[in-house]
Amino acid sequence: MANSQVLLADLKAGRCSNVAEVRLLRFWEAINVRKGGELMSVDMLFVDENSTLTQGSVGANRQLRFRDRLSEGSLYTLTGFDVTRSNTNFRLSDAPFSIWFNEGTKIEKIPASVRPIPTELFRFMPYSQILELANTGKQLPDIIGELNAIRSTITDRLPGAQRVMLTLRLESYGREPKVIIVTSVNPKIVGGRLFLNGTSCTHLYFDSETAAGKDLFDTLPGHGADPGSSTSKVVHAQKIEPMTISELNHFITTADSQIIEFLCTAKVTGIQLDDGWCYIGCSGCSKKLVREISSFTCASCNETNAVAALRYRVTLSVSENTDTASFLAFDMEMAKLTNIQASEAAQIVVDTELPRSLADIVGKTYTFQLKLNDFNFSSKHQTFTISLIFPERVFAPMSAFVVADGADVPVDAPPEVVAQPPNANVGTTSTVADNPTSSDASAAKRPPPAKDQDDVDKTAPKKAHVE
């Protein structure tokens, strides 16, 4: 007797002997980065005729049995699989259950189906919802947008498969894309800015490679090829020039106001404590909070009961030969340099106004990447803002980026992220029941799924000078 058909939405926990007819949208390797890139499973995303998305997985010990049968965009029948509850974190769908392949699972590729199974399905979300998901690790939405600029992450110090994936994908595409779809991103807010981190299941699609992308591509002037505009969106790489402190001081007094980056190697001679070494900032946007009687207010977020977080703001006195300057470092770079968060450093300040982790950098020489803006060329200029700190010269980057006149350049993104274009368009879920499409995008790494503030002003020791 033939097994009956089952829809993905009707799956129940346990072993399923019914037949599910689905399309394999994407598959990727799930890697445990904490164990040297150990393969945990091969994960998949299925869709059926009702546009129900369900994640499937096959363990590392069984993946060789099924791996060669997997083809993105193809139709399959599944039977004899296990149905388990979906992980509550890093979700790729709203389905309560996931599919696990076992020793008795059968997967058969079929050439066609009488059922109208979509050839693509994306979980696009409104911008406001993506903001709500930031830093929660709950959902991995998809995004679609028009590219404003393409900036390499060649200055990142840490190796990352995402950077390699994006570079190879752009090269294989053969031309400069106008529209991009990035799947399964992990939204994070860092320093008040939204970044969309790539994960192990992230795929890239350009221009008309998908129906959803084609719809947006066709709305652009000249169908994405505006003859009236020849400005490239690619931010080309060139060398970041090294400068001495003397040359920096001379440059800001003689050059026109501009945004530019330089490298400067200098010795830290002291830490200026006139304004302290930390401040109470908003946990969301990092801006300084206004202290009320019993709470903190964030003007930037329009929040009258903001969650506070202690953050670094350190002014370094530096010297090179006989020349001196003041370099200003903020939370992220100081935490990387000292390997300790500002809130933790404040707990161990005992007999001095300065944590030992900060005092220890005095007398050491670093290479600083400095980002100059219009303020540095004004009469109010007092410090140079640090964007990166390199403990040894060998780690200093050799590339900066120049964009053609009139093109916007996105802000620097942390290592291993995919930054959202400033004018990215987001919308609702897109489905198409047409010819199948596939992607040659390689999978990046993702963090393994997890299993099931106090007021910093009260906890910080009195010796910690806080604005």
Low-confidence stretches: 153-159, 226-230, 394-467
CATH fold-level topology of the largest domain: OB fold (Dihydrolipoamide Acetyltransferase, E2P)
Task: Write the CATH homologous superfamily of the largest domain.
Answer: Nucleic acid-binding proteins
What class do helices, strands and sheet pairing give? alpha+beta
Shape annotation: elongated
**Termini separation (Å)?**
76 Å
Based on the structure given, which CATH architecture of the largest domain is correct?
Beta Barrel
Number of helices: 9
Residues in helices, as a percent range:
10-25%
CATH class of the largest domain: Mainly Beta
Q: Which percent band covers the strand fraction?
A: 25-35%
Number of strands: 26
Major β-sheet annotation: 8 strands, mixed
What is the CA-atom radius of gyration, in angstroms?
A: 26 Å
Arithmetic mean of pLDDT: 79
Written account of the structure:
This protein is α+β, with helices and mostly antiparallel strands. The chain folds into three domains: 111 residues, OB fold (Dihydrolipoamide Acetyltransferase, E2P) (Beta Barrel), CATH 2.40.50; 137 residues, OB fold (Dihydrolipoamide Acetyltransferase, E2P), CATH 2.40.50; 164 residues, OB fold (Dihydrolipoamide Acetyltransferase, E2P). Helix content is 14%, strand content 31%. Strands 1-6-7-4-3-2-5-8 form an eight-stranded mixed beta sheet. A five-stranded mixed β-barrel has the order 17-21-22-24-23. It has a three-stranded antiparallel beta sheet with strand order 10-12-15, sandwiched between helices. Keywords: DNA-binding, Metal-binding, Zinc, Zinc-finger. InterPro entries: Euk_RPA1_DBD_C, NA-bd_OB-fold, Rep_factor-A_C, RFA1B/D_OB_1st. One of its GO terms (molecular function) is zinc ion binding. This is Replication factor A C-terminal domain-containing protein.
